[in-house]
Amino acid sequence: MFQQKKIWITGASSGIGEALAHAFHKAGAKLILSARREEELKRIQGQCGGESCTRVLPLDLTRAEELSDKARLALDLFGGIDILVQNAGITQRSLVKNTDPAVYRTLMELNYFAPVALTKAVLPSMLEQKSGHFVVISSLVGKFGTPLRSGYAASKHALHGFFDSLRAEEAREGIDVTLVCPGFIRTDISLHALAGDGSKHGKMDKGQAQGMPVEQCAAEILAGVASRKQEIYVAGRDKYLVYVKRFFPGIFSRMVSRAI
To answer: Domains plus CATH for the chain?
Structure first.
């Protein structure tokens, strides 16, 4: 399925992005790895076949003015992109009443506006080749809000609105969109979460520490992408909250209100 496919992964230097790089490499793909930490990207490149099949493209998604040029560079590395995996992002751990508005802007810039910009930059080439697949790493909180994650949830909800619309517009042109909604995955995401004042949360959440192994998460994502699923819930029992919210909203509200 992925043999010789040209795949660009953002947020590839750790966590889910790194695990996806290894999984796609084993499946025979050509990779473009992007994140801010170039040395980490080079480490992963060395583990994924070197320059012959994996290229490194340092990328800071907070620099909006550079994203179009970076996308052009990515398109030139292997002569196009078949799958764009938008994994980079940041979460939050703070109550609404304690969160500076600047934190909300940071969350939206990185988690929403940057993926939109990269999508806009890559979409014309996919339309020209009449094929392409956008894989967007959202979250279960892209389906519902929970305490301490108001800005994170808002940014992920925004992704669903945008990419559901894109799918509806371009499905007849060979464009696929898969929204991936992970629950608790064993990564360092909570360590880097933003506190209300914009500083680092710096703590490993219990749910994260006991979450699904990142390699299992990557395997489930690849299976869903291969099947061209529109939405994937990658989680343990926490994924059932999506259905509790949908069918029993009152019970869901009482459950999450006790989560603080």
So the answer is: 6-257 (3.40.50.720)
